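Researcher: Quick test of sequence recovery. Tokens follow.
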């Protein structure tokens, strides 16, 4: 379980294909604190540490993860938002993020609004997806590349978020341009409520 408050960005050091799997080796500021089997969110995708050194660690993404997220697009040198799992006695500063990416979206607009960056992301949505809660709502929460954000302008197939300079500088939002593909995880509470509609009399 995560909160969507990005701890740092990790730099991709190596990408190794192994059948349909991808082993990703990265460096990050807390690499020396990690242990094997630890869960870390990478651009919002929960992956397990399989090995580590004092300054790097490796995780493995399976085909399902690569198909559903932007991890398959990574290149050596790319920055990835990372967050370690929550501790039970900590504050939930963002919102409940599971680390299970629902789909990807494309940045279709990026503008400076005299104090913050305004991003608009578009994604493919069907009636079936909407019935599962794969939608945003005005002032609701959404995870973009693992970052907990508030929706400013919710439309049928797109939404807008505002990014303050601190978040822009300390996450990989500064790498996002028009055309960049990002990972989305929709609000788990909304997904449960949508599912419960199937059992209404």
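Model:
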């Amino acid at each position: 379980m995560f909160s969507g408050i990005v701890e740092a960005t990790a730099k991709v050091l190596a990408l190794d294909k192994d059948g349909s799997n991808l082993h990703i080796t990265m460096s990050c500021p807390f690499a020396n604190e990690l242990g094997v089997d630890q869960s870390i969110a990478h651009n919002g995708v929960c992956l397990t540490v399989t090995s580590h050194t004092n300054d790097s660690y490796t995780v493995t993404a399976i085909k399902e993860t690569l198909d559903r997220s932007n991890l398959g697009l990574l290149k050596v040198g790319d920055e990835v938002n990372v967050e370690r799992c929550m501790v039970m006695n900590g504050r939930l500063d963002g919102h409940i993020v599971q680390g299970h990416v629902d789909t990807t979206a494309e940045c279709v607009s990026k503008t400076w609004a005299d104090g913050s960056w305004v991003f608009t992301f578009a994604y493919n949505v069907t009636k079936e997806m909407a019935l599962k809660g794969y939608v945003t709502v005005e002032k609701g929460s959404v995870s973009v590349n693992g970052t907990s954000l508030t929706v400013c302008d919710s439309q049928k197939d797109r939404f807008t978020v505002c990014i303050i300079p601190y978040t822009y500088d300390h996450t990989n939002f500064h790498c996002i341009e028009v055309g960049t593909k990002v990972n989305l995880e929709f609000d788990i509470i909304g997904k449960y409520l949508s599912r419960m509609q199937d059992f209404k009399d």
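The radius of gyration is 17 Å.
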